[in-house]
Amino acid sequence: MDQQLAGKTAVVTGSSSGIGKGIAEAFARAGANVVLNGFGDAGAIETLRSGLERQFGVKAIYHGADMAKPAEITAMVAEAAKAFGQVDILVNNAGIQHVAPVDEFPPEKWDAIIAVNLSSAFHATRAALPGMKRAKWGRVINIASAHGLVASPFKCAYVAAKHGIVGFTKTVALEVAELGITANSICPGFVRTPLVDKQIDDLARANGISPERAAKELILAPQPTKQFVKVDEIAAMALYLASPAAASINGAAISVDGGWTAR
Ligand code: NAD
Is 158 a catalytic site residue? Predict the structure, then answer.
């Protein structure tokens, strides 16, 4: 799969950390120019950006668009197209979590999760599709979740957003099917990133147990392998979906969850 994305440009939202960072690295390794996005320490983001350029000989730029703000998302896609001539691959990955019973769920957390985990994908896809249509080639890859297919208690906004993005992806897929563009969702099980570390720490505190015990006995309970999925495994799936070999995979919700949703 070496250099199979040479000459392509990928926008990866939420790529300053975790899964998005892994995808950005995998795409750069395969020769794509990359647009990084996400919050975090400016120095660390610049180290990541310049490291991709140095290590893989591609161009990488950073755009700090807040994925809860439609105008900033549109501006990011426009800037990416201006810098590289084209957005060929869009990975809608940015995501946040909040855990609480429905009747205690803060409405502002609901709104934020729907905005970042669902609506941002609409705004970014809407902005990127015209260029993909002109180029008669494109890949939209949405990072959904096992929670896009099944539910867990206390995650109403996240589960609603992730089910929503699976449906959104299918609609895009049908609309672009004849145009050389595909749209697919990846549905990871638990991956040990900062998003999950926070849940582990909260569960450990609430149950008076160590983080390692909370991870093993509580977080990994639904994951039959009892192992975290690795960032690299999600990145490899994203890379495959971006590759020519995946041209006929369209509208799919691909589980990478150690068997969680096989139950
Ligand atoms: P993470 O916390 O490591 O990374 C999230 C990224 O999104 C960061 O770069 C962060 O800065 C960015 N982000 C958050 N809010 C943003 C905003 N308003 N604007 C711009 N960027 C923003 O988490 P992760 O686990 O890598 O999550 C990435 C995606 O994978 C999310 O959509 C998440 O729901 C999904 N996912 C994660 C897991 C898991 O177990 N970690 C499982 C299934 C799906």
Answer: yes
Q: Which of 36, 93, 119, 234 to mutate to test the pocket of ligand 1 (most atoms within 8 A of CB)?
A: 93
Contact 13, 224 (CB under 8 A): no
Ligand 1 shell residues, CB under 6 Å? 14, 16-20, 37-40, 66-68, 93-96, 116-117, 143, 145, 188, 190-191, 193-196
Strand 89-92, strand 60-63: pairing: unpaired
Instruction: Say yes or no to pLDDT of 35 above 60.
Output: yes
Q: What is the mean pLDDT of the chain?
A: 97
Nearest CA to ligand 1 atom 23: 195
What pLDDT, on the 0 to 100 scale, is given for residue 5? 97
Q: Which CATH superfamily is domain 9-189+230-254 in?
A: NAD(P)-binding Rossmann-like Domain (3.40.50.720)
Boundaries of every domain in the chain: 9-189+230-254, 191-228
Query: Which residues, listed in sequence order, are joined to residue 254 by a DSSP beta bridge?
Result: 186
